[in-house]
């Protein structure tokens, strides 16, 4: 009996020590990684926040935004993001997507009738807005990303918006094109993925022009 109790006590003590040791390891590990992140890459560690010239946080370079008015119409002085299916459930009428707490895609298949109808209508509307043919409207201009929060568009979609933005802001197309190029990221390692343009950073740069 005593032998059995002694064995149980040793087992409990060993388990208790293991819990303490691993708890300390986890805490130390967390603090070490947090410290490394803050020292080595503070911008990324803190959410890649984007600030304006006054030091005010205006968003994150990792999360897209809608550049539309209260009716959902595109603000002509801004480059437009791709559509977002991340809807705020509390805003049924004026919902403009990019609601981070509801990150998601449309989850509709390519044969869905509503998706086909909405995509076709949106493509025509964008073509009319940008003064280009329907064939020149790229796929990302009319399709939401799987997260619904993509802050980037294709260089092709940015290119058809240059003329409109330049006209609205009284800038030369060359100036706007140079900003687009500045905020264009090439393929990873030169061959992974596609080139993209960060709309959040690009529009902030346009607002910061004097």
UniProtKB/TrEMBL annotation:
Keyword Nucleotide-binding part of the UniProt annotation:
yes
Question: Topologically, how does it sit relative to the membrane?
Answer: Single-pass membrane protein
Keyword Glycoprotein in record: no
- GO CC, alphabetical: plasma membrane
Which positions, given as ranges, span the membrane? 12-36
Keywords of this entry = ATP-binding, Cell membrane, Ion transport, Membrane, Nucleotide-binding, Potassium, Potassium transport, Transmembrane, Transmembrane helix, Transport
User: InterPro entries from the xrefs?
Assistant: KdpC (IPR003820)
Locations listed in the record: Cell membrane
The GO terms this record gives for MF are: ATP binding; P-type potassium transmembrane transporter activity
Region described as Disordered: spans on this chain: 74-112
Listed under subunit, the entry gives: The system is composed of three essential subunits: KdpA, KdpB and KdpC.
Entry function: Part of the high-affinity ATP-driven potassium transport (or Kdp) system, which catalyzes the hydrolysis of ATP coupled with the electrogenic transport of potassium into the cytoplasm. This subunit acts as a catalytic chaperone that increases the ATP-binding affinity of the ATP-hydrolyzing subunit KdpB by the formation of a transient KdpB/KdpC/ATP ternary complex.
Task: Name the NCBIfam families for this protein.
Answer: kdpC
**Family named by the database record:** Belongs to the KdpC family.
What protein am I looking at? Potassium-transporting ATPase KdpC subunit
- Which classification does the entry list for the species? Bacteria, Bacillati, Actinomycetota, Actinomycetes, Bifidobacteriales
